[in-house]
Amino acid sequence: MWRKFLKKNRVYVVLALAVMVLVLVTLILRSGGHSGGFVTEAVAPWQKLVSGAGRSAVNFSENLFFYFSIKSDNERLNKELSRLTAQNIELLEAANENERLRKLLNYVRNSGFKLKVASVIGYDPDSYFSSLTIDLGSDDGVSKDMSVVATSGLVGKVLSVSNSYSKVLLLTDIRSSVSCIAQRTRCTGAVKGKGRDLCEMKFLSVNDDIKPGDAIITSGDGKIYPKGVKVGEVTAVSQTADGMSYDVDIRPSVNVLKLEEVLVVVGY
User: Fold this and answer.
1) DSSP letters of 3-29?
2) Whole-angstrom distance, CA of residue 157 vs CA of residue 140
């Protein structure tokens, strides 16, 4: 039993014996015995071992304390970083919202139209049929076929209305058709939706002067869309197969996928 105990705890036994020897030698030296020099020489290695073990224990304790201190600080800093990151996101959102609302207010003041601001609360994407749902309806003075715009240009028109909500047919929907003119040369045509984020301009003859980069705006014909609202920009022009007209690709000026607020034209 003792043999098993000594084998299992030999390190502690050695340390205990070393401490005992060190204490014994210390007592002998203090008693003034003549054997002090011999004893000192004999126990010096043991004294060094015990002293080194003590220093190692102290260093280990200090390192352990330092580790847990660093770990605690790291956890605290991670929590603080998470809090500051969330706060920064909130501030950026507030700044973005303020910027959007500032642009909307400037547009309302300078457009010459009677406008109402609406929030986009739903989006119905499809390859060819696309619409938005806004939080204004008949109770707010909105009615079918009213134009809907954003600060960068035309969005579409009101397709259907309920008391508190309305559905907006987007410019890019294949059911959409808007009478337009090229701002540079005043040639006329109809901008039709092609689905997704694409439009095309129809009914232009080969005698019309139109080029990539030309701005396209509403003509005001048809009594639905007010005149002079930007619709998009010509990206490509090519002759049709019969050589009698042009195929004109239009990039809409409004990215309908990123709209958060729109303006309903209730009068002009």
Assistant:
1) HHHHHHTHHHHHHHHHHHHHHHHHHHH
2) 16
Which residue matches tokens 């998470």? 82
**Which residue's structure tokens are 């390192």?**
63
Please tell me the class of the 114-267 domain: mainly beta
Per-residue pLDDT of the chain (268 residues; tens, 9 = 90+): 555 554 555 555 555 555 565 555 555 555 554 444 544 555 455 455 545 555 555 565 556 566 667 777 777 778 878 877 887 777 777 777 777 778 888 888 888 899 999 999 998 867 667 899 999 999 999 999 999 999 999 999 999 999 999 999 999 999 999 999 999 999 999 999 998 788 999 988 888 999 999 999 999 987 889 999 999 999 999 988 888 888 899 999 999 888 999 999 999 8
Question: Residue 182 has which token pair?
Answer: 């090229």
Which tokens belong to 155? Answer: 């969005």
The one-character DSSP state at 226 is P
- Return the ∠ at Cα 186 (arms to 180 and 187), rounded to 5°: 70
Distance CA 255, CA 236 (A): 19
Rounded distance, CA 266 to CA 100, Å? Answer: 21
CA distance 89 to 70: 28
Which of these, 201, 183, 187, lies nearest to 251 by C-alpha position? 201
Q: Which helix (H) or strand (E) holds 191?
A: strand 188-195
Give the C-alpha separation, 36 to 25, whole Å: 8
Distance CA 231, CA 254 (A): 8
Alpha-carbon distance of 148 to 44, in angstroms, equals 96
């709209």: which residue's tokens?
259
